[in-house]
Write a structure and sequence with these properties.
With 183 residues, the chain is an alpha/beta fold. It folds into 2 domains: 1-95, Rossmann fold; 102-183, Formyl transferase, N-terminal domain (Rossmann fold). It has helices at residues 14-22, 36-44, 59-72, 89-95, 115-121, 157-179; strands spanning 5-8, 25-30, 48-50, 77-80, 99-103, 126-133, 143-150. A 7-stranded mixed beta sheet has the order 3-2-1-4-5-6-7. Helix 1 packs parallel to helix 2, helix 1 packs parallel to helix 6 (157-179) and helix 3 (59-72) runs parallel beside helix 4 (89-95). The two termini are 16 Å apart. Bound molecules: 5-O-phosphono-beta-D-ribofuranosylamine.
């Protein structure tokens, strides 16, 4: 039976779009009602859902609503793609082992919300992209696959960033394909 995929995105959603062009996506969730990812979902015909932490009494209640959404859709794999919240115990206990994340650096180098800028300002000659299982830490879960991306002498932060994103658009579908057993 085909595995059902959910994608979580908080903002732009370019990784979501890349996945949606290659796999049937059962749903997109955004924790930001203003996220551009939601517009992409509409154009791509992917069902989307959005609610915000502030709509709930606490993070446990917010994540319980997410677990219900995922359960209702019988989701097998959750792909975080620019989902800017740390996954808490409610969601993790229900979906650990079925949830992956993409990070724009070569973990364990440069975890956190600014992986590209941090690598750039550290003056590295290479950084990379990592897909990993989600655990309770910030970008600490077991690494599934990663790829190196060079910083070229003529790079600006913008060209370096664009090359990192390009590597993401190749790596994430590759990993999803492998996890679906389609490689
Ligand atoms: C990506 O660089 C991803 O690795 C990071 O957040 C960014 C999201 O970009 N976690 P987009 O929303 O997919 O365009």
């Amino acid at each position: 039976m085909t595995k059902k995929i959910a994608v979580f995105a908080s903002g732009n959603g370019s990784n979501f779009q890349v996945l949606a062009k290659q796999f049937p996506i059962a749903l997109l969730f955004s924790d930001k009602k203003s996220a551009y990812a939601l517009e992409r979902a509409e154009k791509l015909g992917v069902p989307s859902y959005s609610f915000e932490l502030r709509d709930f009494a606490d993070k446990g209640a917010y994540e319980q609503a997410l677990v219900e959404l995922l359960d209702q859709h019988q989701i097998d794999l959750v792909c975080l793609a620019g989902y800017m919240k740390i996954v808490g115990p409610t969601l993790l206990s229900a979906y650990e082992g079925r949830m992956i994340n993409i990070h724009p650096a070569y973990l364990p180098e440069f975890p956190g919300a600014h992986g590209i800028e941090d690598a750039w300002h550290a003056g590295v000659v290479q950084s990379g992209v990592t897909v990993h299982w989600v655990d309770s830490g910030v970008d600490t879960g077991q690494i599934i696959k990663q790829v190196r991306v060079q910083r070229l002498p003529e790079d600006t932060l913008e060209t370096f960033e664009a090359r990192i994103h390009q590597a993401e658009y190749e790596l994430y579908p590759q990993v999803v394909r492998e996890l679906l057993g389609e490689d």
